[in-house]
């Protein structure tokens, strides 16, 4: 039975951290081959599962030191039907790997959770296609497509689902509707280009307001991920109602564009301390930000720097 599905603690205040760039850490820092950027393949062996546990523990230890809650996302950003098929997974095997990803986190939660430091388990969903390109599904197709993975999470102890690196509004609407129909709280995280807009050219304001209007406000909150704060901070009018719907940031430390990152053969880890200061500035303008983590090129050092900048009293 899911522990927090009907009572998400991050909606009640306080700070929750999460992890950084799982796939970039595994590939560039640990030398692990991840075909199609699919970290879920590590669940196929005990050695791979142990690598995942070790990865998560670095962040969980940061949360423990700083007295924060934690949103623990599964290693399933690529574990949807199209990417699974490319990697040779049948529907049955793909459903099982999504379930196994949650089970791994349940074990970690039992080791780390404390009454004053709740740990929320979130099923991570990625876009059907490339996280840097616009998708082509309409809302109905997106709802049907993502229902498979969300349905797998619904039968586990996952408390919610979070869709990361979404590039178009129709896919966001489909995810939110599918989650709602399956009784799963959802968070929607858009990725933005260097101009603060989706790759389709639509604004983050339009993305949030349209998704809310078309789903009856189904997402519990919105996030921004896989963009540097300088790419989007000027696009956020802190006093607007739509901005108040943004409760999480998982930024890149690199200021590179998505095209530059895609073509880079090395990892640009940016400056952890600078990233922390930028998060502090964002929180000063947007006090509702409660879920803080990283994305491509970031690791536990960046998340620790974010904690040190935003939670100096706990450092």
UniProtKB/TrEMBL annotation:
Record keywords, A-Z: Metal-binding, Methyltransferase, Transferase, Zinc
KW Transferase (keyword) present: yes
Name by which UniProt lists this protein: Homocysteine S-methyltransferase family protein
Protein species of origin: Rhizobium aouanii
Matches recorded under Pfam families: S-methyl_trans (PF02574)
Entry annotated with the keyword Metal-binding: yes
Domain Hcy-binding: 4-310
Cofactor: Zn(2+)
Residues annotated as binding Zn(2+): 226, 295-296
Organism superkingdom: Bacteria
């Amino acid at each position: 039975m899911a522990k927090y599905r009907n009572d998400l603690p991050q909606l009640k205040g306080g700070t929750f951290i999460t992890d950084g760039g799982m796939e970039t850490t595994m590939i560039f820092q640990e030398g692990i081959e991840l075909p199609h950027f699919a970290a879920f393949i590590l669940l196929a062996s005990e050695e791979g599962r142990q690598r995942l546990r070790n990865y998560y523990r670095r962040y969980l230890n940061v949360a423990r030191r700083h007295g924060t809650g934690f949103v623990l996302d599964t290693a399933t950003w690529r574990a949807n039907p199209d990417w699974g098929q490319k990697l040779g997974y049948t529907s049955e095997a793909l459903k099982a790997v999504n379930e196994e990803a949650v089970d791994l986190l349940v074990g970690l939660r039992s080791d780390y959770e404390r009454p004053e430091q709740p740990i929320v388990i979130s099923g991570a969903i990625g876009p059907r296609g490339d996280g840097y390109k616009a998708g082509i599904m309409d809302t109905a197709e997106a709802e049907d497509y993502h229902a498979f993975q969300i349905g797998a999470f619904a039968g586990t102890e996952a408390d919610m689902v979070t869709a990361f690196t979404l590039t178009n509004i129709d896919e966001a609407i489909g995810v939110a509707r599918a989650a709602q129909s399956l009784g799963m709280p959802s968070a929607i995280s858009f990725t933005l280009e260097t101009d603060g807009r989706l790759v389709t050219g639509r604004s983050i304001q339009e993305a949030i307001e349209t998704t809310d209007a078309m789903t009856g406000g189904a997402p519990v909150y919105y996030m921004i991920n896989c963009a540097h704060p300088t790419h989007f901070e000027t696009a956020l009018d802190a006093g607007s109602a739509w901005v108040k719907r943004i409760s999480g940031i998982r930024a890149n430390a690199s200021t590179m564009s998505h095209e530059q990152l895609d073509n880079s053969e090395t990892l640009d880890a940016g400056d952890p301390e600078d990233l922390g200061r930028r998060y502090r500035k964002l929180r000063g303008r947007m006090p509702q930000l409660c879920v803080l983590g990283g994305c491509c090129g970031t690791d536990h050092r960046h998340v620790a720097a974010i904690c040190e900048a935003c939670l100096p009293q706990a450092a």
